[in-house]
Amino acid sequence: MHATATAHPNIALVKYWGKRDIALNLPAVPSLSLTLDGFSTTTTVTLGAPADRMWLDGAEAAPKVAAKALRFLDLVVPGRPPCEIVSVNNFPTGAGLASSASGFAALALAAAAAAGQPLDLPRLSVLARQGSGSACRSLWGGFVEWQVGVAADGSDSLGVPVAPPDHWDLAMVVGVVSTAGKAVGSTEGMERSRLTSPLYTTWVDQAAADVDEGRAAVLARDLPRLGRVMEASTYKMHATMHTSEPPLMYWQPGSVGALQAVWALRAAGTPCWTTMDAGPQVKVLCPPEHADAVVAALRPHTQAVRVLRPGGPAAVIEGP
Ligand code: PMV
After folding, report:
1. If we measure between CA atoms, which residue out of 122, 151, 120 comes closest to residue 136?
2. Phi, psi of 275 (to 5 degrees)
3. Count of beta carbons in the 10 Å neighbourhood of residue 2
4. Partners of 305 in the beta sheet?
5. For 59, which DSSP code?
6. Alpha carbons 9 and 171: distance in angstroms, whole number
7. How far apart are CA 218 and CA 229, in angstroms?
8. Domains recognised in the chain with CATH numbers
């Protein structure tokens, strides 16, 4: 039996950095995200293959990647037979563009559909979180909040929709500074920050207020308010990374050039706000009618620029 599902990546508007439980991927902080169209992962799961195997972007997946995905299938379909996973990203994998978010969301949905399970998005969000934290936000389209939860088993730590994609037409302009894979993965990086950064406690203490502010700004469609809290959350997170021991620096010279170009554009009157994740890419939130000006500002500092809009939820595109 097989099924195919797609999911879009999401970019955090208020960031997740830090775990209170590594095994269950329980976050130390809540977060708020925007699911994006344009970029997507498409994943087919075949239950009852000759052997466990995974293909990623047209080649056999690296053993660590395959082992993690196949272990994740044990959670979604307990007692499963041998499985084959075929997953394709239409954007760079593992480069700070949230491929793990769309990847685990698509995998959870495809596996549940292949097994003939009810497609219960809250349950799949709890499961996707255990594959990659931010994946719990990619089951839904539009604006999504990941609630920290209080249950020890993580059953109430999942993505919750805040507003659908058509609530607010925004552009997220993605400047690709480098597509090289990241040197330090997010789990290792978060633990390093938790254990060594003197700013980590402040970061955690301020996160819930930032999510409240971000949610209110989304519901009021107030872009300067959302942009301000997105930049505040972004640079508090990166300050926590930079003050880890040894320092975690995901930025490259092109990232700094891109940030300065966008801030200069804003100072000259264009409404646009920056964000970055665990990679060198610079993403810019702006009204769609200002996207061309942002693209022009990013171009000298980047290899490629894409304009993305709010995207829809994960979906099964071929059933068993
Ligand atoms: O879901 P993970 O483990 O890849 O962590 C994602 C962390 C950030 O992208 C840096 C922030 C976020 O909230 O997406």
Report:
1. 122
2. -150, 155
3. 18
4. 175
5. E
6. 15
7. 11
8. 2-166 (3.30.230.10), 171-308 (3.30.70.890)
Pocket of ligand 1 contains residue 31 by CB under 6 Å:
yes
H or E element that contains 121: helix 121-131
Name the residue with tokens 């170009």.
261
Task: Report which residue type is found at 247.
Answer: P
273-275 vs 282-286, strand pairing mode: antiparallel
Q: What tens digit of pLDDT does each residue of 9-67 get?
A: 999 999 999 999 999 999 999 999 999 999 999 999 999 999 999 999 999 999 999 99
> Which residue intervals of 167-313 are DSSP H helices?
186-196, 200-219, 223-242, 253-267, 291-298
Residue that the structure tokens 């999942």 belong to = 158
Residue 16, ligand 1, Cβ within 6 A: yes
Residues of the chain with pLDDT below 50 are none
The predicted pLDDT at position 272 comes to 98
Strand bridging mode 53-56 / 83-89: parallel
Cβ neighbourhood burial of 271 (10 Å; 0-12, 13-18, 19+): middle
Query: Which residue from 21, 99, 186 has its CB within 8 A of the most atoms of ligand 1, so it is best to mutate?
Result: 186
User: What's the CA-to-centroid distance between 229 and ligand 1, angstroms?
Assistant: 17
Strand pairing partners for 144?
A: 33, 161
H helices then E strands: how many in the chain?
8, 16
3-state secondary structure of 56: strand
Q: Is the CB of 248 under 6 A from ligand 1?
A: no
Token pair of 152 as six digits: 């020890």
- What tokens appear for 138 in the block? 């990619």
For the chain, state the CA radius of gyration: 19
CA atoms within a 13 Å half-sphere pointing along the CA-CB vector of 167: 21
Nearest ligand 1 atom to the CA of 33 is 13
What length is written for the chain? 320
Q: Which atom of ligand 1 is least distant from the CA of 100?
A: 4
